[in-house]
């Protein structure tokens, strides 16, 4: 029996990041979670838009990711919805990213959370901030595409 190719199932996207940053490089990192957090992710109770990645002591940490606890969470734990989560990457990758982040204008931002082989993965990007005129260009391009799609839809009827 042939094995099906695995598809990554999206949990949450950070659409705000694509609007505010140019992505130079993308990486997939593992993320250290507690049991109640995984259950909440399965229910889709997560917000990624305020998240950012920092380097501390040669390790990467995801700050600002909000995972809202379920009402049915266990009583013997006290869930913290904004707990700092550790990201898992190879040492060489972390060193390379640290060197690039120390350059002016570069930062690490989370792009999305997804399932891969039953594990939660976080896609992060080495990003450079957009200027205000770049953001206006992004809006203009998006509206132009919408106009073309509307015209094509009306024309195809």
UniProtKB/TrEMBL annotation:
GO terms for biological process: trans-translation; trans-translation-dependent protein tagging. It is found in: Cytoplasm. Keywords: Cytoplasm, RNA-binding. One of its GO terms (cellular component) is cytosol. Gene3D superfamilies: 2.40.280.10. The keyword Cytoplasm applies. Residues 133-157 are annotated as: Disordered. GO terms for molecular function: RNA binding. Pfam families: SmpB. Belongs to the SmpB family. Required for rescue of stalled ribosomes mediated by trans-translation. Binds to transfer-messenger RNA (tmRNA), required for stable association of tmRNA with ribosomes. tmRNA and SmpB together mimic tRNA shape, replacing the anticodon stem-loop with SmpB. tmRNA is encoded by the ssrA gene; the 2 termini fold to resemble tRNA(Ala) and it encodes a 'tag peptide', a short internal open reading frame. During trans-translation Ala-aminoacylated tmRNA acts like a tRNA, entering the A-site of stalled ribosomes, displacing the stalled mRNA. This is SsrA-binding protein. The gene is smpB.
């Amino acid at each position: 029996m042939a094995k099906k190719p695995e598809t990554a199932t999206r949990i949450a996207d950070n659409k705000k990041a694509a609007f505010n940053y140019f992505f130079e490089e993308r990486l997939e990192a593992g993320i250290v979670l507690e049991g109640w957090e995984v259950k909440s992710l399965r229910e889709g109770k997560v917000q990624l838009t305020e998240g950012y990645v920092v380097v501390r002591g040669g390790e990467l940490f995801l700050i600002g990711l909000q995972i809202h606890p379920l009402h049915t969470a266990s009583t013997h734990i006290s869930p913290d919805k904004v707990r700092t989560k550790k990201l898992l990457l190879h040492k060489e990758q972390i060193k390379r990213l640290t060197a690039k982040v120390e350059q002016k204008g570069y930062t690490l931002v989370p792009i999305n959370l997804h399932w891969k082989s039953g594990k939660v993965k976080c896609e992060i990007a080495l990003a450079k901030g957009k200027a205000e005129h770049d953001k206006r260009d992004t809006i203009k391009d998006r509206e132009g595409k919408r106009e073309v799609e509307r015209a094509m839809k009306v024309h195809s009827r």
